[in-house]
Known about the structure:
- The structure holds 2 protein chains of 2 kinds.
- Chain A is α/β, with parallel strands linked by helices.
- Chain A folds into 2 domains: 12-51 and 90-203, Rossmann fold, CATH 3.40.50.1100; 57-88 and 209-392, Rossmann fold, CATH 3.40.50.1100.
- Helix content of chain A is 43%, strand content 18%.
- Chain A has 17 helices and 14 strands.
- In chain A, helix 9 (200-208) packs across helix 11.
- Chain A starts with 10 loop residues before the first strand and ends with a helix.
- The relative contact order of chain A is 0.16.
- Chain B has a domain at 13-148 and 211-216 and 225-253: Aldolase class I (TIM Barrel, Alpha-Beta Barrel), CATH 3.20.20.70.
- The mean pLDDT of chain B is 96.
- Chain B is an alpha/beta fold.
- Chain B starts with a helix and ends with a helix.
- The A-B interface holds A 17-23, 25-26, 164-165, 170-171, 174, 177-178, 181-185, 280-285, 292, 294-299 and B 50-58, 61-62, 65, 68, 73-75, 97-104, 124-128, 130, 148-151, 153-155, 158, 173, 176-178.
- Pyridoxal-5'-phosphate binds next to helix 5, helix 11 and helix 15 of chain A.
- Pyridoxal-5'-phosphate (PLP) binds at residues 88, 90, 114-115, 117-118, 193, 234-240, 307-308, 352, 354-355, 378-379 of chain A.
- Chain A: It comes from Leptobacterium flavescens.
- Chain A: The beta subunit is responsible for the synthesis of L-tryptophan from indole and L-serine.
- Chain A: Tetramer of two alpha and two beta chains.
- Chain A: Pathway: Amino-acid biosynthesis; L-tryptophan biosynthesis; L-tryptophan from chorismate: step 5/5.
Amino acid sequence: MKTYHADEKGYYGKFGGAYIPEMLYPNVEELRQRYLTIMNEASFKDEFDQLLRDYVGRPSPLYYAKRLSEKYNSRIYLKREDLNHTGAHKVNNTIGQILMAKRLGKKRIIAETGAGQHGVATATVCALAGIECIVYMGEIDIKRQAPNVARMKMLGAKVVPATSGSKTLKDATNEAIRDWINNPIDTHYIIGSVVGPHPYPDMVARFQSVISEEIKWQLKEKEGKEDPDYVIACVGGGSNAAGAFYHFLDNEKVGLIAVEAAGKGIHSGESAATSVLGNDGIIHGSRTLLMQTEDGQITEPYSISAGLDYPGVGPLHAHLYESKRAEFISITDDEAMTSGLELCQLEGIIPAIESSHALAALQQKEFGADDIVVINLSGRGDKDLNTYIDYFKL
Amino acid sequence: MNRINQKLEENKKLLSIYFTAGYPSVNDTVSILKELEKSGVDMVEIGLPFSDPLADGPTIQESSTLALKNGMTTDLLFEQLKDIRESVSIPLIIMGYFNPMMQYGVDKFCQKCAEIGIDGLIIPDLPVDVYHDQFQAIFEKHGLINVFLITPQTSEERIRFIDSISSGFIYMVSSASTTGAKNTFGEDQSSYFEKIAAMNLKNPQIVGFGISNAETFNQATKKAKGAIIGSAFIKYISANPPEKISDFVEGIRS
Ligand SMILES: Cc1ncc(COP(=O)(O)O)c(C=O)c1O
């Protein structure tokens, strides 16, 4: 059967793999050799499930959005990842990876963060496990995301500014990778999305796959069938989308819609729509689609939403795009903000601006009255309040 | 015979210098190369700058950022090096990350190197197994030597595999770290240097990362065939004109 999952070497079609310097090889190889075995251990599964239930608050509800459905004349469900502890899907992955790190005997955790959501989710699980936590964050993002910086500090993490290059997420990722090179024995790197060298994209997708696992049984209860007609998710690196798509990837009857950030417009020069603007290359150890100059220098993306502000996508998504298994659409800042406010007013839910991009797919696409459309509401809008205030002059 | 192999047969400890093309100014490449040869340097690694050099410490990061700002590109570097073999005869290696080479086209990139008289490549993020599966034939067709890195954490089995695929020298990373100047090597490095020497590999080893002065050069080359200086040299040329390069080299050789 045709599959869209990673092969043994971490390739999705031609994308993926592990393009890493030799200095990283022992760490990445150790993880590659052990991740599946560890994830399949009964004690690991028990601990993971228990923490997702009692600590994160899973299962997250699958909510039938009645007024939104009426407006768009379709059957729209929201997968409420915004109700997770720490406010987004990111914690599903960090819970999994901290348990992985403990089983690998690691004593020190590093992570990168852009908006600070993944940094907060990592700092949280490190506090939970009593493990040292260092979060790299671009100097510019530290200024833009002060509340999340404060949260990480309260949770006991050390936040280190990335001052190289463009001083944002891609540079924070570079710094985290450099830290790992310099600390090859006792450190585990908790990557925040389905990016990086194999096995990260596959491992993170598996940890996030709980999203689609729940969608299946929740839809069965509510609609009498497991499969929706469409699943919609926003894509920065692609982890919430990977989790929401995961159990539907090989079922081509389910339409997958990946939403990228068009920023101020795809051809405005300020955009993060990687599938349109990017091409085949290597970023952070993975072969995938990325935004770059003709000369192969990685360029700086732009989106009003810090979580979508990454110049690449994970290799799974590059493959879903090239194979046309998923439809990729791009949403501008303005469209996203409008849809975010609409959700507030129709359903009483303030979404993260990342998730507002997924919601804005409703403005671009038309669905049938009987179509079951699941939108992954990847996070809540608390962290974005200042952006909403500035934008709507509240 | 490839100039690298010839050089490795000389009965001396080799000094290799790394610098980032396009730094300090965009047109320094050729004059730096000439001065290096005149000063008695044995081999040069010309750094093709990359926006995201993830194996590099602050010095090489900064030089890369500035080189790109100065306008360095792959085409421009090839253009600058077009007639380099009329004036420089020591082995020349291009060191860079894989993405710019991939965008140029690996085959075209290698062909261009061969035309110019580049002898080898060092590509830290092109792993040995991917090279072996996909690119070895292309490199060999153009007579280029690809140099692989080993580190203190590289297993013996993997070192043997890398040795079997290599045809020039092995780049021995001195310690688990990104590039950057250190002032001394400790016990750990000495025992690592000895361990590798005792493996009797088919390829000679050249030590890099953390070599900054005569002392570290001598420590590194006690067992190994040579050593590579990068960050310390870049710091030096930030503050001194190319004509002063011989002072730096004399300081290392003393
Ligand atoms: C709420 C939310 N959604 C989506 C994303 C984008 O990440 P990914 O594409 O990995 O899901 C982020 C990243 O910070 C986020 O905070």
